[in-house]
């Protein structure tokens, strides 16, 4: 799983430095979608936020200051957005089909970070998957894989 995430995040940063985070940086769109998924059920659990921070920091190789800048940019973009299209259209321009599937897996990992999935979270991921051009079959497959990763993570933490 770690290799999959590393490959995904590295594909987003190819040719980009970590110093500046511009609004059109695809990492901002990814962070914004993650925030939308986290906020879908009305409660942002600490485990979800921790998972997002861990993924962004490790995979983009950000220091604490850069991480906070990306989180702030993503949250600002998310709060200004009226729908998911703004982010998904940007992501579709930058990511191929396999990378979009990986992103969906990441969104599911954030959903399951708190140990459960709400109907609203499920709906948000479904809408994002639809806009990214991910099939229902692939969306469900990514969800199942995230459930297995979550269960494995729980066993490892015990």
UniProtKB/TrEMBL annotation:
Pfam families: TerB
Positions in coiled-coil regions: none
Gene3D superfamilies on file: TerB-like
Limits of the Co-chaperone DjlA N-terminal domain: 28-142
Record InterPro entries: DjlA_N (IPR007791), TerB-like (IPR029024)
Name by which UniProt lists this protein: Co-chaperone DjlA N-terminal domain-containing protein
